[in-house]
Amino acid sequence: MLIIQRLYIKEFLKVLLILTFGISAVFSIIGLIDKIDDFMPYKPSFNLLMLYTALSIPKYTNYLLPMSILLSSLFIFSQAIKRREIIAIKAATGKMKKVLIPFVIIGIILTSFAFLLGEIIVPTTSKKLHSIKNKIIKKERGLAFKEGTLYIRGKDGSIVRISLYLPDKNISKGVSIFKFDEEGLKERLDAETGLWKDNVWKLKDVTLYDIAKGQIRKIKEAVYPAIESPKIFQEDMWKVEEMTIIEMVKYKQRLDEAGFKNIKLLVDISSRLSYPLINLFMLLLGISLSLGGDFRGHWLLKLISSQKIKEGTLGSGIIAAGLGLLISLVYWFGYSLFLSLGYAGAISPLIAPWVVPIIFAVISVYLYSQIPE
């Protein structure tokens, strides 16, 4: 590896780390400030608040990494253009793309890291974050949720198992309620479905097992007031960011078997795969825009070298930052728009999360291929 390659890689990684974790930390602190009014009545310890802030960082890192990569690449190579280093490199080596090969490898590594971040680290820290929040507000977690199965404690002390819960419809499939006394299990109630209606759970096609009397009864419909309102326990249910792809796929399979189509979940599964890829293409895009790409007039070089900002490096840094933010905003707007179209069913939920990444991929690869040697 050339000395100049090591220098650029070192500078790139340094700027990337500062931007990514610095901005993520700022957003985490802002998130804590937003929650502070809810937390302060419970007088949480300083360590608990700092732990809450630290656990928020991976989530923001996952969101901000593409923008940070773009900003870092634009900044590093715009500085190289300003110092006329790129001209010297071309004169010395003759092959600019050969010099850039390590950055392509770094882009692949960052993409892999982003996938692992979103698939392993973010779900784990999100669950812990939820647990810390409950600990701060001294809320007991009387709920367990996994792949659609829900376990909760009823207000009468009973244990309620819901085989498949549909949050969007407030419908429960396969409801089992276990009642206990001093001697053990006293009564078991199984219902085909449960529907939250008129502020109460209405169970249909109920089978009641009276263990003490040894009797079995069939009931067409029954009201069971001991189960909390969905608004209460939905707060403790896993969110998408707390689930891995495998967990989401298993949940979707259970929904399909029950005859329910969850388009939003399908979009989220597809987006979990498409989102990390943008990191590689943001890196290629930043390099291409800095080094010319298809813009043979080197418009960025002209801006950086203009008389107004010729002295110092602040001007070129501002231009790189402004350009990076603009491109990031365009990407986020387009990505969010197509996700919304996918959620609404206007376009295929499998395709929706891939449209904007593919567009950016085509543009970045084309511009990268056009970098003048």
From TrEMBL:
One of its GO terms (biological process) is lipopolysaccharide transport. It comes from Dissulfurispira thermophila. Keywords: Cell membrane, Membrane, Transmembrane, Transmembrane helix. The keyword Translocase does not apply. GO terms for cellular component: ATP-binding cassette (ABC) transporter complex. PANTHER family: PERMEASE, YJGP_YJGQ FAMILY, SLR0882 PROTEIN-RELATED. InterPro entries: LptG/LptF_permease. The chain crosses the membrane at residues 12-33, 60-78, 99-122, 273-293, 314-334, 346-368. It is a multi-pass membrane protein. It is found in: Cell membrane. This is Permease YjgP/YjgQ family protein. Its main location: membrane.
